[in-house]
Amino acid sequence: MEQQQLYKKIANIVENQIKNGSLxxxxxxxxxxxxxxxxxxxxxxxxxxYMELESRSLIESRPKSGFFVSLAGxxxxxxxxxxxxxxxxKKQDPAALIDKVFHSLEDKEITRFSxxxxxxxxxxxxxxNKCILETVHELHDYxxxxxxxxxxxxxxxxxxxxxxxxxxxxxxxxxxxxSGAMNAIYSCLRAVTKPGYTIAVESPLYFGFIQAFQVLGLxxxxxxxxxITGIELDALKKVIHKIDVCCxxxxxxxxxxxxxxxxxxxxxxxxxAFHHIPLIEDDLYGNIYFGSSRPKPCKYFDEEGLVMxxxxxxxxxxPSFRIGWVEPGQYKDKILKQRLxxxxxxxxxxxxxxxxxxxxxxxxxxxxxxxxxxxxxxxNFRNSIEAHFPENTKMSQPEGGFVLWLExxxxxxxxxxxDYALKQKLSFAPGRMFTQHxxxxxxxxxxxxxxxxxxxxxxxxxLGRFFKAVI
Amino acid sequence: MEQQQLYKKIANIVENQIKNGSLxxxxxxxxxxxxxxxxxxxxxxxxxxYMELESRSLIESRPKSGFFVSLAGxxxxxxxxxxxxxxxxKKQDPAALIDKVFHSLEDKEITRFSxxxxxxxxxxxxxxNKCILETVHELHDYxxxxxxxxxxxxxxxxxxxxxxxxxxxxxxxxxxxxSGAMNAIYSCLRAVTKPGYTIAVESPLYFGFIQAFQVLGLxxxxxxxxxITGIELDALKKVIHKIDVCCxxxxxxxxxxxxxxxxxxxxxxxxxAFHHIPLIEDDLYGNIYFGSSRPKPCKYFDEEGLVMxxxxxxxxxxPSFRIGWVEPGQYKDKILKQRLxxxxxxxxxxxxxxxxxxxxxxxxxxxxxxxxxxxxxxxNFRNSIEAHFPENTKMSQPEGGFVLWLExxxxxxxxxxxDYALKQKLSFAPGRMFTQHxxxxxxxxxxxxxxxxxxxxxxxxxLGRFFKAVI
Lengths: 471, 471
Description:
Two copies of one chain form a homodimer.
Chain A: H1 2-19, H2 32-39, H3 43-55, E1 59-62, E2 66-69, H4 95-104, E3 111-112, H5 125-138, H6 153-162, E4 176-178, H7 180-192, E5 198-201, H8 207-215, E6 219-222, E7 225-226, E8 230-231, H9 233-239, E9 245-248, H10 262-275, E10 279-282, E11 307-312, E12 324-327, H11 332-343, H12 348-359, H13 362-388, E13 394-395, E14 403-407, H14 414-423, E15 426-427, E16 429-430, E17 443-447, H15 454-470
Parallel strand pairs in A: 3-15, 5-6, 5-9, 9-10, 10-11
Antiparallel strand pairs in A: 1-2, 4-12, 7-8, 11-12, 13-14, 14-17, 16-17
Helix pairs in contact in A: 1-3, 2-3, 5-12, 6-12, 7-11, 13-15
InterPro entries (chains A, B): Aminotransferase_I/II_large, HTH_trans_reg/aminotransferase, PyrdxlP-dep_Trfase, PyrdxlP-dep_Trfase_major, PyrdxlP-dep_Trfase_small, Tscrpt_reg_HTH_GntR, WH-like_DNA-bd_sf, WH_DNA-bd_sf
Family (chains A, B): In the C-terminal section; belongs to the class-I pyridoxal-phosphate-dependent aminotransferase family.
Protein name (chains A, B): GntR family transcriptional regulator
């Protein structure tokens, strides 16, 4: 244990040197033996520290030359711009574009950087299958009765137990199981809005929300959003008198990957409490963090019960299971009523299988592996984008999740280029999908929760060259 | 085969004699040997015919005396009254009563005549379990992708195939899979209504609808409904100018068990087409008929695509599977949009397991057994109610489904009596649950999809005596 911490400590020291610029791309690191002496540790510890740095893609070994700071360690690209208010501009929902992108994904030969889901190979499918089989064998009467409207008590207990980040502030009695996070959001919206209500959202935002808000007759105000810190609170304050409800992805938003700092979350919750505005918090990426600990949700700072905290296993375990949940604050009865009239109850098998997966501790193990894999993919993507995409490309710096947001030359229209890329069996999510206004046309979203192999590497390079060629 | 038909023919002849009154309660039938000669058949055939009549509860054997016409063959009780318009009367949704009835059912010692689901013992749980297991073994990638918004293509094909009653008028392309019939109805309502719209419904009606309409902000007009033939078309015509949408259970409505005759359905569809009013048709009991053939839904007569035909496996296979569907007529796109924003897609296992159950022909076999059992239960209930309930009790005459509607002495208040019956471990559904107005307090709904055994028989008798004692 002691030794393990030591090698990580050294790796962290070197990482900091790289990040603060005392070591830059191409710099040679001390040899392992020098490092051993330098840090006064065993040879093994020094070796482990360098291996750790390699696994973080911060350094690379060159045969017979030693270790060098890799390109990945360097911040070369600047971050995308902060979006601005477009309140007075004409709205046009990107329905047709969303439809097109979805339908074109049916061709399995296309490399789907456009997808919003992890590649199956990164998910614990086999282990989940086993849980399903065990559940089916154990359940005897799962077909003959409605389950509880609130969802399986076992699953609710497990989710409450795993919500460590909330430090015991929620219990199984509070949670409501839903058909995925989307259904949690939908049920919250139905509980606290009426047609004509105004909802504040991030900008860019997940296109599924745009569709839902439109169908529910809500007016949407896209709040300027910082690619690193999320919603701009000062901007929100300017329009707060117009807002009836907020819906934010506070941890690793989609598509920006922004993470609201704790102080922002605290201030946001306070602001909303002052104005009695409910917040639907979609925290479905919170467990996929690259940092040292799971970021807190706004829910953590909520004292009034105005925050409806939504989550799901969709992005980390199994998209098609449709298991999500919401901690509904003061809106529990309203949301239960919505669930009841939507479908009375939810089928048992998936709920019990997920409960089992959490119970036997496979969740933690999977998340650890998954996070490492995603971080390594992120670095690989960053390296490739820096090397092969147009020089003036700006790139988000997610500290979790699995999407990258690229802002490219203003000449680029990714909506139009989408069709051309498709012909080359490449896909990306055009920026225009993520807004109701005429913006982000020079942006794209890429999914790095893929198998990083020769083909993927080559396809990403091809995509970069494709954009270069356009300019 | 030939012999089987023969004994049924004879049984039918005798049944007709009983029904038209040429044989009445207590009449002695010819001995088996006499019947053999009378009908010029084998001794076995004559025996089988009498056994068939016994299984229909039309005759009973008395030891050493022979066979006699039983009480069941006689129509003694009159049918409940036709409901009347209460448009101008104050509305009060029975939410508290519904809640109470649901919560009190948690005590497993209570005989739950109040329940709206068949007893597990009447459902093919074991066979469905097998289908689930086979499905889990066969599906390899069921966790890693969203399914189609419209639902599993395999299941849609099977449902289209099994919708024989529509004579090929629908295809798998038309159907949308939902989370049970309730979700089908909900999605239809969301697709064609806005808060403030007025919806025409039966009276009494399924309390789940009352809850849904209330939450969705719809105004409900309860249309006078005949216990045998359903919605009174003349009454509907009187208020048709106020109606935005209709929601009817045309086959074996709940709780009345009414079955609209074909001519009524035809006229209804024509009327609604003339006024461009959509009809949400909940046909979830249609396959549980006691007559010679499956009654047609209104959908069959629909040429404009105004009828949204909803169904599910909830009442005949497995309540908790939450598998339903809708043939959405001209509203397909709108309903798909609703499904998408509700939950994106539905999990695979239950859909594929039900598809498998339909595919291998177990559905037909199960329905045959289930129908026979229900019919026999119905006769047993009728006999017991005639024998043990107050003299002036009126009783519905369902030709399918599994609920009975009793109208009792006006002095009876079933809402109040519910609590007293509960203390005797008996439950029924108070009539007040099935309306938004102050009516049906002297009515109750009983579920006869139960195990008919000594205990049930005794409990039903106790319930009858309970009401008798009150009067």
